[in-house]
Amino acid sequence: MAPTRRILILGGTGEGNRLAAALVDRPDIAAISSLAGRTAEPVLPPGEVRIGGFGGTEGLAEFLRERSIEALVDATHPFARRISANAAQACARTGIPGAVYSRPPWPQEAGDIWLDAADMEEAAEMASERGGTVLLTIGRQELQPFERARSGRFLVRAIEAPHPLPALPGLQMLLARGPFGLDQERRLLRDEGVTLVVTKNSGGAATHAKLQAARELGIPVVMVRRPAPSGLPVMHGIDELLAWLDHALAP
Ligand code: NAP
Predict the structure, then answer these.
(1) pTM strictly above 0.90
(2) Would the pLDDT of 1 be above 90?
(3) CB atoms within 10 A of CB 26
């Protein structure tokens, strides 16, 4: 029988969990999933899981060497910039093959009123200029730039509340974990009188309905662009990724 090859999945996403599930029954591959440990009750992938940072690029490179990892898949969120940069650098340093497995960005569709923002700073500037009732669906870690707003009302949807709460005018936390349905999103935007939605271009089905609801209601969406890619090859489909993995692990 062929020896078992060990791989590392940097996860914390549906993609990471999907990949771990696709590999769990393969006798030739032993996958270790890594989570940052940000959420108190994460949805755990099947198989071996480790939780917590590695200690930068060198810590990750050390882990790859110590655990005899033979391939790395960066399945972190498209906006998790630091860990993706560390992954690309650790692969370069150790010579271990690496790839990014991520969902494609959402394309703009006819009827969408999208306002392009290069980053969260620019998104916050746009939101504070416009005022009104702003729905922030950007998680809880990048709320600080919006503290510049002097008026308006902010609804912040996140899985967990940030500590401390940001100083945003009229702050209301909506604690919820996706997926969110279209009816639910229509109701939220309508009932709360939302006049602007701010989101990252995360892609994926679980949080897409808000875009359709905003389109139907003629509500503009500040769409924060993805950060620059890390340099590792990017795969959007699980089949493509599994083919890459088989190739990377070929003797
Ligand atoms: P980040 O800024 O890129 O990473 C910050 C630090 O957290 C990294 O330097 C690393 O610490 C540690 N880290 C991040 N992901 C890790 C992982 N999968 N395993 C072990 N350590 C990890 O990341 P972030 O934006 O805070 O996101 C943290 C995690 O939440 C990611 O795994 C991501 O997939 C998930 N997530 C992020 C978002 C988002 O919008 N950013 C949304 C949904 C889920 P060391 O340098 O000490 O190794």
Answers:
(1) yes
(2) no
(3) 13
